[in-house]
Request: fold
Amino acid sequence: MGFVAHMRKSCTPATVGRYMGELERFHDILREAKGAEGPKNATHRDIMGHIGRIRESGRNPSTALCAIKKYHAWLLGTGQRGDDPARGIRLRDSRRKDIQLQDLFTRRELERLLTVDERYTLLRNRNRALLSLLAHQGLTNGEVRGLRTSDIDTERGTVNIRAGARTDARELKLDARQAFWLMAYIGTDRPGMLKGPTDALFINQRGSPETANGIAYLLSARAHLFPGRKLTATTVRQSVIANLLKEGKDLRLVQAFAGHRHPGTTERYRQAHIEELRNEVTKHHPLG
Reply:
């Protein structure tokens, strides 16, 4: 199996395209310096030098590093190299997105996303199923777009999420309403929307796989429910995770649910909640 085919098993087409673009730039530099075998023989110094060049150009090197890491992990796993020069490289200057407490939504507020009347009857089940995967399972925009019809098991009531650039693969439970919406959409609505062969679960009115902008638009059409607040797939996901921790769910279970690869990523949500409580205590019971 080639590297591109290997990536397609766990990455969305858009991610594969971005990674291959970054790798082509890196490999062009190595071929010029080392010849045809340059890419496979890259050293730790080669990778760090490339990261430095990206920083000097004003770009964020995180996508390039993710692509290089994935490539060298594949070389190691297929026996084409005996070491992985990218392993252990961390970008200390990468910015971590802070959790903005004012943008988080309660469970009840998230449920309101599923009650808006749809303009087009054909899209009712599709939109409710799609939005519920954001509001109940906390999927990312990319994870929703990466779903295939085979990832849904309505009999068992589960959805299978593939591993992404930053999240692990996982299987999550669906509630009864979700299973009903998905069954109606897959069995009746989706076939009538198809214009050509595709295994993408969610397709748009043109019969094409749903896009990132399409999902963002679906949420923006409901932004009037929460005036002055930021309603995006990211803030919805952050809300789902924060709500689970507020309810006392075990950190490791929430980490697995969210697909976080590192406990520290999940821990940020608990720390954000602690800070929120601290602010409330200071507001109502000031010291001094």
